[in-house]
Automatic annotation (TrEMBL):
The keyword Transmembrane helix applies. This is DUF3810 domain-containing protein. InterPro entries: DUF3810. It comes from the Bacteria. The chain crosses the membrane at residues 49-75, 87-108. Keywords: Membrane, Transmembrane, Transmembrane helix.
Length: 354
């Protein structure tokens, strides 16, 4: 690009950063004018453009960007990093454009109002309330499990293909428009061609913020697909924070008409509640864990064994990087911010999932 334009784009990068810092203090403005203003039209347009493709355009885009990055590094090394002003300015200009597109197409959702404010829920809850909620959740999860297996010691095996599970998740999102404060149309949910590296990195899936395509790791056990797909749909609906997308995953799956889907949702919510309760009162929680059907625990162990099989020395690096990414994007607790989903679940109440 022309030199003047390159400099202008490069100088626009710190301006963007300043705007972002301002938006962090104005969640109501973001909520009204972006998340419920222009974003629904941006996201629907992107899903209309790319959703019909049988492959992930976003994964293809990442591949091209990766190749260009490798080529850029090779040229810099080949030229011994000569003319630093030129390539540094050009690099900053490119980064500025990507940074702008990331926020315009999706990223501003990080600075919207918290989901508990949107749903008029309390932010805090007592340990007693969590214990009562978890006890009821165990009863409902056990009942669903027994209905599906007729044996409390057998794990649930999904009788659907992973493609069928994705379609069930899409159907549930459409029928829950009255509960989710944003209409889900023009679905775009796909298996990621990068599922193998995603698995080694420890990720179930991701949303491509540049194309609004929901990417699901197809290697995961089928038991995890209902909630993972629903989680990524939550991101498409504009809930950028991981904990809030997890709540949308519960909402989408726990009210589903399909009992296998509900089972995945209830046990997903139960795992979070048990973990939080154990953190608060470990001895008492051990007794509650013993009440969970052995078959449910086998499903939990199935997922645990899957991830153990792909453990590698680089996984903590990826988790640390992603934790830092969350902190930069208005989630100060990083990976630990996932526990906020428990507050949303407890204060939302189980009766609304009936």
């Amino acid at each position: 690009m022309p030199k003047k334009r390159t400099i202008a784009f490069a100088l626009f990068l710190p301006v963007q950063w300043g705007i972002i810092q301002g938006l962090k203090t104005s969640p109501q403005f973001v909520e009204e004018y972006y998340s419920n203003g222009v974003y629904p039209y941006i996201s629907m347009t992107e899903r209309f453009l790319f959703g019909w493709l049988p492959f992930s355009f976003g994964d293809l885009l990442y591949t091209v960007l990766g190749i260009l990055l490798i080529r850029w590094m090779w040229l810099r090394i080949k030229n011994k990093f000569k003319q630093p002003k030129r390539w540094i300015t050009s690099s900053l200009a490119t980064l500025s454009i990507i940074y702008f597109c990331f926020h315009l197409f999706w990223g501003f959702n990080y600075y919207r109002q918290p989901l508990h404010t949107i749903l008029s829920l309390e932010r805090d809850y007592t340990t007693e309330k969590l214990r009562e909620y978890t006890t009821t959740l165990i009863q409902k999860a056990n009942a669903l499990h027994l209905q599906l297996t007729q044996n409390d010691s057998l794990k649930v095996v999904m009788p659907y293909s992973k493609h069928e599970l994705r379609q069930l998740a899409i159907a549930a999102a459409k029928q829950n428009d009255d509960k989710i404060p944003l209409t889900y149309t023009q679905p775009s949910v796909k298996s990621s061609v990068y599922s193998i590296p995603l698995t080694y990195m420890g990720f179930n899936g991701y949303l491509n913020p540049l194309t609004n395509e929901a990417q699901v790791n197809y290697l995961m056990p089928s038991y995890k697909h209902p909630t993972t797909t629903s989680h990524e749909i939550g991101h498409q609906l504009g809930f950028a924070k991981e904990n809030e997308a997890n709540f949308i995953a519960c909402l989408n799956s726990m009210v589903h008409e399909n009992e296998y889907f509900r089972y995945s949702g209830y046990t997903f919510a139960l795992r979070y509640c048990l973990a939080e309760l154990y953190r608060r009162e470990p001895e008492d929680t051990e007794e509650l864990i013993d009440r969970v059907n052995y078959g449910i625990r086998l499903n939990y162990d199935e997922v645990r064994q899957f991830w153990l099989a792909y453990q590698n020395p680089m996984e903590p690096v990826f988790e640390a990087f992603y934790g830092q990414f969350l902190k930069v994007n208005n989630q100060p607790q990083g990976m630990q911010s996932y526990s906020y989903v428990v507050a949303l679940l407890v204060n939302y109440g189980l009766e609304k999932f009936e």
